[in-house]
Specification:
Blueprint lengths: L2 H20 L2 E6 L3 E8 L10 E6 L6 E5 L5 E4 L3 E6 L10 E9 L6 E8 L11 E8 L4
Parallel strand pairs: 2-9
Antiparallel strand pairs: 1-6, 2-5, 3-4, 3-7, 7-8
Length: about 140
């Protein structure tokens, strides 16, 4: 092979590598698991409609997802995600555990806070595809 062809191949290989490195990887990082369940009145056991449920990642407190309970007291919230364009895909959480907090609030009831800790996945993002079901009882304010 002539030196000109070798140089051209080296230039093309280098240009291809640089182009690939310059393109960001689109990555939706799950910073929380998905949470669902039901909110009930502690005294009567009846569903509590319209309770606000806020899900927060313990690792990125500015990342939240929220919803309100339906007429039957049920809810589904999350995952809280961040859209990232990065050159490296980094783990979502630390220490192989997906840790979240649920805050449940409703006028006339004492607020409830639940911490959740789930052993993390080994692939596909640490919190990705994790879920937890909750039965939450709210106590009426005195």
């Amino acid at each position: 092979m002539t030196q000109k062809i070798k140089n051209l191949m080296w230039v093309l290989a280098t240009a291809s590598l640089v182009a690939c490195m310059a393109l960001p990887i689109e990555n939706e990082a799950w910073l929380t698991a998905q949470h669902g369940g039901i909110v009930r009145d502690k005294a009567t056991g009846k569903p509590v409609a319209g309770a606000k449920v806020v899900l927060t990642s313990k690792y990125a407190s500015s990342i939240t997802a929220e919803t309100f309970t339906a007429a039957d007291g049920t809810f589904m919230v999350g995952p809280a995600t961040r859209q990232a364009h990065s050159y490296l895909v980094l783990p979502d959480v630390k220490d192989g555990v997906c840790e979240d907090t649920l805050d449940i609030k409703h006028v006339g009831y004492v607020s409830e806070k639940r911490d959740s800790s789930i052993e993390a996945n080994k692939t596909g993002g640490v919190c990705r595809n994790l879920s937890r079901t909750h039965e939450i009882e709210l106590q009426k304010r005195p």
